[in-house]
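A further point concerns the way the authors explain their paired sequence and structure data. Since the whole study asks how a given chain folds, the encoding of that fold should be made plain. A single example would do more here than another paragraph of explanation. An entry of this sort, consisting of the sequence and the corresponding backbone structure tokens, reads as follows:

_____
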Amino acid sequence: MSLTFKLNGNIKGLIFDLDGVIADTAHLHYKAWIKIGKRWGFHLSADQNEQLKGVSRADAMQKIAHWAGKNIPQKELDYYAHEKNIYYLDYCEILGPKDILPGILNLIQRSQRAGLKLAVGSASKNAKLILEKLGIINLFQTVVDGNMVENSKPHPEVFLKAAESIKINPEHCVVFEDSQAGIQAALNAKMYAIGVGASELFNCHSQIQTFEQFNLLELLNQLNN
């Protein structure tokens, strides 16, 4: 489902989510969450995992405990969230440039030539580490991650901080997101929201399955005219 978008001036900045947009890391989160769920005799389904995309680790932990029917003290939930991150980082040891999703480097290069500013806005507290492993952290003017915000998506804080950091007004920014919470966060920030991936995302302005099918010039012509 797509929305119409009235642009107040030219597009000047692109903001990317990380997991599932820049790199194929979403399945590593899923594997780590499954290990946590098994401790409680609970199996996290793929559909439930979709609901965790774009959500902070702490909020995801609360959701899983609820689904598992567990009433767990916050201190214990914090411990499990920490354990989940250890599992995830272990899985991430094998990450490298090969895990960058198809088409994203071409888009970054074209965007740089067009004079656009680039940012990452991710709920992950490991975003900078992952970008370093991918070898592309220096391609972005700024990275705003879960260590820098108080509110989880769909709150717009992460995208608003990214826009502020690259000195671009929110209405001049395009956000690429693969989660429903992230799409809503972009809309709440008054930004143009492009859904990424095969799963249907509601209320985005447009959606692409991969960046290989994305035409930057077409988007700029559409929004800037």
Notes: The domain at 13-24+99-224 is CATH 3.40.50.1000 (Rossmann fold). The radius of gyration is 17 Å.
